[in-house]
Design a protein that fits this description.
alpha/beta; Rossmann fold; eight-stranded mixed sheet
């Protein structure tokens, strides 16, 4: 019995280690992904937007968050802070940036704690601490640009989408929130993927594994929950998720959408795209849907609108 118990503890601890370890993509790998899967290359994007200003902010627990600021010389008083997915990085988010750049907006991208150029020793918490990081970056943008909350939008993909939704529950009066393929809560995201990888043993191991996550990261994992945050969000939300997402089931966004207020848009795409790949699969259509949302739900945000559809 003692051997069985020790084996159980070992396996649960190992799973918690997998949850809390970030094998993030290098900048070079992110650039390669952009060049292979996007309509323009990384060099094309930098040529259009210019070299960014690098910055650093201190966030919760004195964790240093580092990012890049693209100041739009054609700025008309708007900005967007974009949050990336788990194991990804800020450079990968440039595929979303040009939609907002063309509207005359400043763009900020940054690496999450535990990722890329930000403090790597900080454990990931699926939005619990990351939402504070996102707000800290937003405050930096406000001080640098003079923009106010109602002139700044938030965008995120996957883990980043969950982060901006959770931040939206605690920070009011942002212009809008764009969330591409979020999970409804951390446990569901982990359980769904774990079930595919390990099968039924996940049912037995997950309570102990998540208990170890709480202890090691000094959190309550149940707080990592966009679905609980959704009812507290007052900003217009553009929520989009592919029905054929093989990583995070789109039913999770369906559940989130039911908790959001009426001035939100949920697009449940049928474009055959995988996780966060709707924008790669149909970039023009994606942009048109976003601009329509901004025009109808936000009213005015830079030059964003259907008349701005220049590709």
């Amino acid at each position: 019995m003692a051997i069985l118990f020790a084996g159980y503890v070992f396996l649960a601890w190992s799973i918690s280690s997998q949850i809390l370890t970030v094998n993030y993509k290098t900048t070079q790998a992110q650039i390669a992904d952009l060049n292979n899967g996007w309509v323009v290359t990384h060099d094309d994007i930098i040529k259009e937007m210019g070299e960014p200003e690098k910055f650093e902010v201190k966030s919760k627990g004195d964790v240093r968050i580092r990012g890049e600021y693209f100041e739009n010389v054609d700025s008309i008083n708007c900005g967007v802070v974009i949050s990336h997915g788990h194991t990804s990085g800020k450079t990968a988010m440039l595929k979303y940036a040009d939609m907002f750049w063309d509207c005359g907006c400043d763009v900020v991208i940054y690496d999450h704690r535990g990722h890329g150029e930000s403090d790597n020793e900080a454990m990931p918490t699926a939005g619990i601490n990351e939402k504070d990081d996102h707000v800290a970056v937003t405050e930096w943008l406000k001080s640098e640009s003079g923009l106010e909350n109602h002139q700044i939008g938030w965008a995120g993909a996957s883990w980043g989408a969950a982060t901006v939704l959770m931040a939206g529950a605690y920070e009011s009066e942002m212009a809008f929130i764009m969330a591409d393929a979020p999970y409804q809560d951390w446990f569901t995201a982990i359980y769904e993927r774990g079930k595919k990888q390990y099968g039924g043993i996940v049912d037995l191991l997950s309570p102990a594994a998540m208990g170890f996550v709480n202890i090691r990261a000094d959190i309550d994992y149940r707080q990592a929950s966009p679905i609980l945050a959704a009812a507290k969000i007052t900003e217009p939300v553009f929520l989009i998720h592919s029905r054929t997402d093989g990583s995070t089931g789109s039913h999770q966004s369906v559940n989130i959408s039911k908790k959001l207020h009426p001035n939100c848009t949920f697009i449940h795409t049928e474009w055959g795209a995988d996780h966060c790949k709707d924008i790669n699969t149909r970039p023009d259509e994606y942009r048109a849907l976003l601009y329509q949302f901004l025009e109808e739900k936000v009213g005015s945000f830079g030059r964003c609108g259907r008349e701005t559809m220049e590709f």
